[in-house]
Each structure stands twice: as C-alpha cells, then as structure tokens.
C-alpha cells in the first residue's frame, strides 16, 4: 500500500498544471524511494519526467512497487477541491484501483478534513530508455526570464533557434511578419548576486517548437531557476528542481531546413 | 521550414 503525506497540496496542483496539457493519462510509479511519473506526449515529441523523493513528504510509506494509473484530468479536478496550504495525504491499496486523497485544513479556527476518492486505471505505457548524455552546453537562468522569453517569441513565430556560444545564449524567432532575438550574456553578475550561469564545451545551435517550451514554462511556479542542457542534434533537457523533487522535460529538436 | 523529429529516434522505446 501507499501512504504519502504532503505538507502542502499546492505542490501537487502545480505539478499537475505543468504536466496535464502534455499527457492525459500516466502511471505514478510508487516505490520506497518516492513517486515517479514519466510519459511522452501523443506526438512523441516531448517527454515529461517528475520525481518526488520519499524524503520530501511529511510521512511516506510504500511497501512494494505500485504503479498507479491516473487520468490527469480527473486528478486535476480532485486537486482543485484542495486549498493550496492544505495538508494532502495520498493513499492507495495494493490492488491500485482507487486513489484516496485527504485534505486537512491548517487553519486554527476549525478542523476541516475532506476526503475524496478517484478511480485508477490500467495504463500500458511505453518505457523509454533515456541515455546518459554529456551535454555540450548547460545554461541556468531564472525560470521567470525563460518563461518571458518563450512567451514573447511565441507571439512572433512557431519555432525558436537557441544558440549557445562564447557570447552567451541567444533565442531567435523568425516569424512571417516579424522576427526577434534575445541575447543573454555570460556576465550576468552586475549586482554581485549570481543570477545564472552558462557552461559550454562547444557551441550549440538547436531549433525547437515554441508551443512545447511555453508549456514547459508552467513549471516556473515550482522553481525560481531552470536549467537547459543542450548538445547538437539531441533532445533538449529542461530541468526544474525544487525541495521535494524535480520535473524534467525532454524535447526533440527540429531538424533540416 | 525545419521538420520536427521525434524522441523515439533518440531514445530506445521498449
């Protein structure tokens, strides 16, 4: 059985927000290390991978590996019934056909305990073997900055070309009616406070669909920083780390011309 | 324009 108690429902709400438009159904793989979700979107262009460490929960117990097949739309609805700061407990039995969620209010004036149950399903998902990659470039930047850039450029065109060079990281969008490019220079330590970093072994140029990057940026609510890992001709890794775990996205590049 | 590749061609699917 699984019993996992989170100190704030907001974490799950934000995670669902950051996943549900890419994937409609997914297995939450629970084991003693924590809860993991890995799924590709229908078009096999993007993959999302979420990990919640057992240590990130107030209480965590999972006796044996348990895949919970979740319809993310249904879970989103059930989570809407929780207040952001409610304590949230997930429970499932070994038959994994029902997920129960309990929300406990933290407010001092009343003890509210709400209980919900949702049906689980059998999901036969592809398992992707993600190879360990030594990336040629690694860029860390404020997640709000990344959100702003991809949202702005998505107004102009469908794609963005990302160029990492000695100069810094440049985002270029060539739309039919307008184009734009944004350069973030290596030296962003003006205030003495390090806002980001660019590490590069060799120059990288890759082109991606902006609609996916805009979607990934929903994770900005989970982490103040985002890390972009790139090598020529391999999928981009977009990684957001937070106290209780991480969410990572892989995105296949556009190729040829 | 450039064509969209798929993850399957980079990652092994089983």
Q: Can you describe what's shown?
A:
- The complex is a heterodimer of chains A (257) and B (14).
- Chain A is an alpha+beta fold and 257 residues long.
- Chain A has helices at residues 9-19, 72-80, 143-154, 210-216; strands spanning 2-6, 25-31, 34-40, 46-53, 59-62, 66-71, 87-92, 98-104, 113-119, 128-129, 137-142, 159-165, 168-174, 179-185, 197-200, 204-209, 225-230, 236-242, 245-251, 254-255.
- Chain A contains four helices and 20 strands.
- Chain A is elongated.
- Chain B contains no helices and two strands.
Per-chain topology:
The complex is a heterodimer of chains A (257) and B (14).
Chain A: E1 2-6, H1 9-19, E2 25-31, E3 34-40, E4 46-53, E5 59-62, E6 66-71, H2 72-80, E7 87-92, E8 98-104, E9 113-119, E10 128-129, E11 137-142, H3 143-154, E12 159-165, E13 168-174, E14 179-185, E15 197-200, E16 204-209, H4 210-216, E17 225-230, E18 236-242, E19 245-251, E20 254-255
Antiparallel strand pairs in A: 1-5, 1-7, 2-3, 2-6, 3-4, 4-19, 7-8, 8-9, 11-15, 11-17, 12-13, 12-16, 13-14, 17-18, 18-19
Helix pairs in contact in A: 1-2, 3-4
Chain B: E1 3-4, E2 12-13
Largest beta sheet: strand ordering of chain A:
6-2-3-4-19-18-17-11-15
Query: Structural class, from helix and strand content of chain A?
Result: alpha+beta
Question: What global shape of chain B is seen?
Answer: rod-shaped
> What characteristic shape of chain A results from the CA principal axes?
elongated
Low-confidence stretches of chain A: none
Number of strand elements of chain A: 20
Q: Spell out the helices and strands of chain A N to C.
A: EHEEEEEHEEEEEHEEEEEHEEEE
* Cα distance spanning the termini of chain B: 31 Å
Count of beta strands of chain B: 2
Radius of gyration of chain A from CA coordinates? 20 Å
Proportion of helical residues of chain A: 10-25%
Mean of pLDDT of chain B: 82
Average residue pLDDT of chain A: 94
Largest sheet of chain B: none
Largest interface: A-B, 25 and 14 residues
> Nearest-angstrom radius of gyration of chain B?
9 Å
Distance between the termini of chain A: 52 Å
Q: Strand share of the residues of chain A?
A: over 45%
Order of helices and strands of chain B: EE
Oligomeric assembly: heterodimer
